[in-house]
Amino acid sequence: MTPEHLPTEQYEAQLAEKVVRLQSMMAPFSDLVPEVFRSPVSHYRMRAEFRIWHDGDDLYHIIFDQQTKSRIRVDSFPAASEL
């Protein structure tokens, strides 16, 4: 998954998975059902870390892959807030 290709069509499934994971983590302490507040499918991120990178005369933003630490070029970021 790259920042330009966020799996917005999987939002509901990902949210449901997070709720199940949270409930299982909290089960030893409480059997309450969490109240879920949905985010917009896009333009929800208020913070993100980017770097400016260049190859010769080409200048662009990058992020780093969390697993491999390899650079990922970012030309658009639909998760970013529109503010």
From TrEMBL:
EC numbers on record: 2.1.1.35
Enzyme superclass (EC): transferase
InterPro entries: SAM-dependent_MTases_sf, TrmA_MeTrfase, U5_MeTrfase_fam
CC terms in the record's Gene Ontology section: cytosol
Annotated GO MF terms: rRNA binding; tRNA (uracil(54)-C5)-methyltransferase activity, S-adenosyl methionine-dependent; tRNA binding
Gene3D superfamilies hit by this protein: 2.40.50.1070, Vaccinia Virus protein VP39 (3.40.50.150)
GO biological process: methylation; tRNA processing
Coiled coil (UniProt feature): none
Pfam family, one: tRNA_U5-meth_tr
Secretion signal span: none
Keywords attached to this entry: Methyltransferase, S-adenosyl-L-methionine, Transferase, tRNA processing
Translocase recorded as keyword: no
SUPFAM superfamilies: S-adenosyl-L-methionine-dependent methyltransferases (SSF53335)
Name this polypeptide is given: tRNA (Uridine(54)-C5)-methyltransferase TrmA
Organism of origin: Xanthomonas citri pv. citri
